[in-house]
C-alpha cells in the first residue's frame, strides 16, 4: 500500500505539472469555429476579455487576404484588431479576467498596408507600464518579443503605411498569430504546495519514529 507521504508527494507532483502546463499559454486562435470565414473573438477565450478583436480564416476568405494569409503561422486562423477609427487608426485589445499576466511574444503582419506602424501598450490597474512601436509589412510575419511583465491589459493601435495594391480590401489592421502569454504562478498556490511537501515529510518522519517505538 502506498504510504500517505508518498501519496502527498504524488499529489504535489500532479499540482506542479498542472501549474506548469497552465502557466504557459500559446494562443493560436485555431480552435475557434465559425459558420463563415471568421468573426469576433469570444469573451473568455484563453481566459481573456477581448475588445474589438476578430478572427479570420484567410484560406476561405472570399477576397484577396494579402497579409492575413502571409501572416498565418499556424492554420487556419489569424486574429486582428478590427475597430477602424475616423482618424485612420485601427484599435483592439484584451485584458485579464483574473490575475496579471506576461505578454511574451506574437507574430505580427500588416494586413493591407506595407510599412504599417503598430503601437502595442501594456497596462496594469489602468496605468501605462509598457509601450513599443513596430513597423510591419504584408509579405511576411514579424516575430515580436514584447517582454511585457505583470500587466492586466494590452492595446494594439495600428496606422499609416502604403496600400499593397491588392483589390480585396484595405485598412490599417494588424494580423496576429501564435500569441504567447504567461500567467505567473499564484503565491498562495505555491505556499499550499510547499506546505503539502513539508506535511508529507513530517508524516514520513513520524511513521519512522512510531515503528521504532514498537
Q: Which sheet architecture does the biggest sheet show?
A: 7 strands, antiparallel
Structural class, from secondary structure content? alpha+beta
CATH-derived topology of the largest domain: Jelly Rolls
The number of distinct helices, counting runs of at least 4 residues, comes to: 3
How would you describe what is shown here?
- The chain has helices at 4-23, 67-70, 187-213, and strands at residues 24-27, 38-40, 48-51, 53-56, 78-81, 83-84, 90-96, 101-110, 113-114, 116-124, 127-136, 142-151, 153-159, 162-163, 174-182.
- It is globular.
- A hairpin with a 5-residue loop joins strand 6 and strand 7 (90-96).
- It is an alpha+beta fold.
- Helix 1 (4-23) runs antiparallel to helix 3.
- The strands form 3 sheets. Strands 1, 2, 4, 5, 8, 12 and 15 form a 7-stranded antiparallel beta sheet that branches.
- It folds into 2 domains: 1-24 and 185-214; 31-183, Protein of unknown function DUF4465 (Jelly Rolls, Sandwich).
- The chain is built from 3 helices and 15 strands.
Task: Give keywords.
globular, 6-stranded antiparallel sheet, 2 domains, 3 helices, 7-stranded antiparallel sheet, alpha+beta, single chain, Jelly Rolls, 214 residues
Produce a short descriptive summary:
The protein has 3 helices and 15 strands. With 214 residues, it is an alpha+beta fold. Helix 1 runs antiparallel to helix 3.
What is the topological layout?
Blueprint: H1 4-23, E1 24-27, E2 38-40, E3 48-51, E4 53-56, H2 67-70, E5 78-81, E6 83-84, E7 90-96, E8 101-110, E9 113-114, E10 116-124, E11 127-136, E12 142-151, E13 153-159, E14 162-163, E15 174-182, H3 187-213
Antiparallel strand pairs: 1-15, 2-4, 3-7, 4-5, 5-15, 6-7, 7-13, 8-12, 8-15, 9-14, 10-11, 10-13
